[in-house]
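Quick one - inputs below.
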Amino acid sequence: MDPRVREHAEIIVEHSTAVEEGDNVIVSAPPVAEDLVVAIAEKLGEVGANPSYSFNSSRASRAFMRASDPDEFTLPEHKLAEMEETDVVIIVRGDTNTSETGDVPPETRSALAQAWKPVQEERMGKRWVGTQYPAPGNAQDAEMSTAAYEEFVYNAVNKDWDEQREFQANMVEILDPADEVHIVSGDTTDIRMSVEGMVTANDYAELNLPGGEVYTAPVPDSVEGEVLFDKPLMAQGREIVDAWLRFEDGAVVEHSAAKNEDVLGAVLDTDEGARRLGELGIGMNRDIDRFTYNILFDEKMGDTIHLAIGQAIEHTVPDGRPMNESAMHMDMIVDMSEDSFIEVDGEVVQRDGTFRFEDGFEG
Amino acid sequence: MDPRVREHAEIIVEHSTAVEEGDNVIVSAPPVAEDLVVAIAEKLGEVGANPSYSFNSSRASRAFMRASDPDEFTLPEHKLAEMEETDVVIIVRGDTNTSETGDVPPETRSALAQAWKPVQEERMGKRWVGTQYPAPGNAQDAEMSTAAYEEFVYNAVNKDWDEQREFQANMVEILDPADEVHIVSGDTTDIRMSVEGMVTANDYAELNLPGGEVYTAPVPDSVEGEVLFDKPLMAQGREIVDAWLRFEDGAVVEHSAAKNEDVLGAVLDTDEGARRLGELGIGMNRDIDRFTYNILFDEKMGDTIHLAIGQAIEHTVPDGRPMNESAMHMDMIVDMSEDSFIEVDGEVVQRDGTFRFEDGFEG
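Output:
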């Protein structure tokens, strides 16, 4: 077996989820990821955990959902009980075809998700991690050979996460006590927001593997200016290119896109919260050096920032601070590698991708 | 998808397990059998069942078992609860390498089986079926190409089971009220036993798919004579060829084999019940026309009988009749196609593979 798969398994079991003896562990994986399941099983055996393995086939999901009457979905009570008794959930993603469920009606999909919501909510309170197996379908989305994509995934995932945590802590120290953030990129992005009183989180690959971002919540009404998201994004199974938003008093008042502008409009119309920002993130995983149409990686890409319209991430908003709420949370990415800067409380903290706490920084 | 896979799924869901709306269904399958899982998922969607899918990887099992301390195996309580709440269990077998767990110490294997015994026992009370996906490892055991093996499997599995049930019922009618059975094949097999008061069962693919046998329990002390099992059998991962047994007062008093005689001896020494017969079966699925080193098929092969040393099958032994008990149940097969007959209460009911109730029978 590829030694990188074993290393990935070790990081999942030891770092991201810290599995202990006697833990009940669910490993959910697609058939294509059997190698990683084998390597995880070996680690779980060493630790003395009790694994069960869930066969997560997008082809089977599609067949089931299309054949079902969406009004009839119910949650078997024992699936909730199972999750309650579970200590750790390891979710491995990996596709042989990322469009596999593309012909399932959205209503069916939401009806099933709705039925299973109690299990999902229960899961959120567990130690869990979502990670990626370098499957051919994901390589294809990234326009890479499977071999090259494997190299990309393992570079991003099999890192010294203690070192990464310390690197990112420099940025948390700047952002956590800050009031105002000002982001400029070329002549297309110039946006200001307050993060006053919000919590800045350091993502070093606990819930997501790879990790590699620092993120917080903007004060909902404080956002002003305009931003061009020069990396593409996927919404409702369609690609939005060059999404552009203009904010006034925190809300999007104008928008456009070079492709699928109507889809962007539909997303913004989801609910009131979908017109406001829920997250400001700073990508700091420099082994993610290219865009691959997979948000698990893209949002952590080095030399980028991302803003999410919609729902704020709960642990970044302390009690008593205003929290943006929405059924939507859509991450949108801005390249910061050239002709760009991030200013925090009037001081430039990153210019053209180099941080203030690094060699080569020019303030 | 191969239409034979869909037909297999239909028989599993509609005939073998009779899944109904609202049933909680566990589908356990190896990654190689994804096609069948997809087809089963579709049927379950149509019926309105609640499936969950278990990823049954022999590679992962091996890795887990080898890495584990066998003294530490415990059964998570929720796995038992899950089985209690389950209505139907569908177990799909299929190997890319049938020797995959060959280097797991037998003690580790039994320790894990022991820990999970309550779940297995609970499962036996459910509607369940064990079936086969035509995977390359199983084709290799059968010395067939995967394509030819697929043809073999689907011929054996995708049958009109009502018709097969009626065909077999003829033999049940003969055997169920019978006292003495006498089986002769060439000059190597001549064995007599009583089946007085025992129940004869008709296997038309409920718990096993394929089905295709009629079976009962010999009275333990009644077996007399000798038998040469001229089809090979696997025990403890090794092949026993030309196993020969001589019975007196129901017990094996002499044995030999052309290959791995010591393994046969070890099996007979398992416990007291391992020297007596637990089952007499008559193979009646004529689409199983060759031996494939897979007992799920081999024991139902047309023109064969099989005898199992060890544990009797509970529902063939009525209350008050003597039941053979053992930790072992090993099926052993005799070819009846030539120079052979089965005599029931002094009357020949099968000669050279043709039954009394068929054209061409010569009594």
